[in-house]
What we know:
The structure holds two protein chains of two kinds.
Chain A: E1 3-5, H1 15-19, E2 25-27, E3 34-36, H2 47-51, E4 57-59, E5 71-77, E6 82-88, E7 94-100, H3 120-124, E8 150-151, E9 160-163
Antiparallel strand pairs in A: 1-4, 2-3, 5-6, 6-7
Chain B: E1 6-16, H1 20-32, E2 38-41, E3 56-59, H2 72-82, H3 89-109, E4 129-133, H4 136-147, E5 150-152, E6 155-162, E7 170-177, E8 183-193, H5 223-230, E9 235-236, E10 245-247, H6 255-259, E11 264-266, H7 278-285, H8 296-308, E12 315-317, H9 325-338, H10 340-348, E13 360-362, E14 376-377, E15 403-405, H11 417-439, H12 448-469, H13 484-498, E16 507-508, H14 510-526, H15 535-560, E17 571-572, H16 580-583, E18 585-592, E19 597-604, E20 606-607
Parallel strand pairs in B: 1-2, 1-8, 2-5, 8-15, 16-17
Antiparallel strand pairs in B: 3-4, 6-7, 7-8, 9-14, 9-18, 10-13, 11-12, 18-19
Helix pairs in contact in B: 1-4, 1-11, 2-3, 3-11, 5-15, 9-10, 12-15, 13-14, 13-15, 14-15
Amino acid sequence: xxxxxxxxxxxxxxxxxxxxxxxxxxxxxxxxxxxxxxxxxxxxxxxxxxxxxxxxxxxxxxxxxxxxxxxxxxxxxxxxxxxxxxxxxxxxxxxxxxxxxxxxxxxxxxxxxxxxxxxxxxxxxxxxxxxxxxxxxxxxxxxxxxxxxxxxxxxxxxxxxxxxxx
Amino acid sequence: xxxxxxxxxxxxxxxxxxxxxxxxxxxxxxxxxxxxxxxxxxxxxxxxxxxxxxxxxxxxxxxxxxxxxxxxxxxxxxxxxxxxxxxxxxxxxxxxxxxxxxxxxxxxxxxxxxxxxxxxxxxxxxxxxxxxxxxxxxxxxxxxxxxxxxxxxxxxxxxxxxxxxxxxxxxxxxxxxxxxxxxxxxxxxxxxxxxxxxxxxxxxxxxxxxxxxxxxxxxxxxxxxxxxxxxxxxxxxxxxxxxxxxxxxxxxxxxxxxxxxxxxxxxxxxxxxxxxxxxxxxxxxxxxxxxxxxxxxxxxxxxxxxxxxxxxxxxxxxxxxxxxxxxxxxxxxxxxxxxxxxxxxxxxxxxxxxxxxxxxxxxxxxxxxxxxxxxxxxxxxxxxxxxxxxxxxxxxxxxxxxxxxxxxxxxxxxxxxxxxxxxxxxxxxxxxxxxxxxxxxxxxxxxxxxxxxxxxxxxxxxxxxxxxxxxxxxxxxxxxxxxxxxxxxxxxxxxxxxxxxxxxxxxxxxxxxxxxxxxxxxxxxxxxxxxxxxxxxxxxxxxxxxxxxxxxxxxxxxxxxxxxxxxxxxxxxxxxxxxxxxxxxxxxxxxxxxxxxxxxxxxxxxxxxxxxxxxxx
Lengths: 166, 617
């Protein structure tokens, strides 16, 4: 099973259930702990692994092509703005990587409605929000003349009705 | 299931799907429509949903107009060239002229974009810039959550609703909550579909646990297509499925390897193989073989021919590049940032690309609209320059009134990727605000008899299971109901064998598809017998419904286009060559729910820029 949950570490908090894009992390009614109920619909996206406050979730490569004995562990630290990875090969070799994940405070994005109300002229133009300023390009928003269009002729009209299922 | 509680949610703008298209739509519609009620509905949690849930290591659509790198015209040439001549150039130009402002906003929001020694964004290739994108989706979701009036997570939208009075107008959508089971009726003045393309309609290489490691996310269930198809929106280029060259088993992307790390491919004997197949490609597609860069499908074709001729496995030559410690880090972080499964495969197999040139594979086909392919709904073009034939109201509105789309949903616009899909959501969002303003008092109304009938249909799999389960002792084998996984595997086998899957080396012809259509019809009938033991399986049941309808549309389009336009994506054995005389056009389909037929027609291609850059430019 691509992701799995360690019995002694999981406290059944449900963060993984809440985040899983595939809806496959569930709380087992008997153990009251999380379980991947559908490993063949797991993308190994690690959303659950990253979200687990107990580091109780790990991944074991897909059984149909991954030999055993490897590990790819992750520590995501949103407050530090980093993600750290440790890879362990089947033969024991290790590799470590750290990357930034965000340059601003979490929650700091200004809401679209906090900007000054755009003018009617801007609404009627082809501009999107924050344009032309945010294009940062000389000449502003590009356009093209309708006259430039060349229609490629269609050889002959062919229509048909293909019976498909009801 | 009369017992399920029904919730009614009214809105001005309803956004279905909280991926990049949907998040862009939410942001932009709030910016222009301060007084509007904007509702986002998502089957997972928008914090980590859609194709970018896992993160990305590059933004593949950025012009760089500020540094004089590319103009929208160049982007249109690139799209057209890669898709063998057939793209909606008006829509592509629109993405190109706006996408830079989207990316600059992402940077301001906190997305770490790498820079080069001149302080410019680090280019991976002509169109791609490199990012540390592990939190790309959470960052974009933060902006969307703030913009939306309400976000409904964990609601699977199953159907769009038509207006009571005007049949060619959308009035909302219905769905169910995957956690509580409650039924939701969304009534809205405008609807923007930002749902996902389709994985798992063709049988994947891996049939065990590894079937989850498809290239496109397993939760991309073709809702982008099934929702508009069912209410009669015209679709385009649905035959234009994509097949991808990827690292074997993990489907790790090759873009950064080719473009930035300058690694290259060889056959199993260490030889360059692409030049060998050039002449045979020319016989199929003529002058397109001389285009630069070589279209994605034609490079696939050379790979496939080489393997068929006994030259496999195809490998990526990484040993040289990975001697540079910086490149080694980029090579690994590239996967950890967007395809962790590939790093797992290499760690498990003791593959260190410093020592071993890793194997590549040609994937199973996928149907989507934002990568090197452009399946999707037929949409109205930009107000200020689209040709009259492409312009029937509002930018990015489909052929159904009030129904807009973005990202995978809209056809004819390949190479949007994350930033272009968000940008297209912005375009649809602004246009939807205009549409709602122009309605004045003429608001659409949902039809109670329609949604009550759908409610019955939506929960039927639970009832089928409840009744059928008592017939058998235990297990998964029932004479009365079909489990969603069984139905999915049946669909994948039909599409693989009768519509050009990897098991048939992507080959298809008329007799095969005639049989395929019959088989799909029986599968469609059997969907009435789907059995679900709970809400999770009910979700899978409706994902399957969406995949089957999308597949029927793919089959109809593939049958209609009598040529091999994209060798390396699929081959028509009965029409083995590209035929510009007859088929330099779009294919359009419209589904009739009453008869179950797809009406097919051609639509003209307009070229808005010259093929070659003028010398003066």
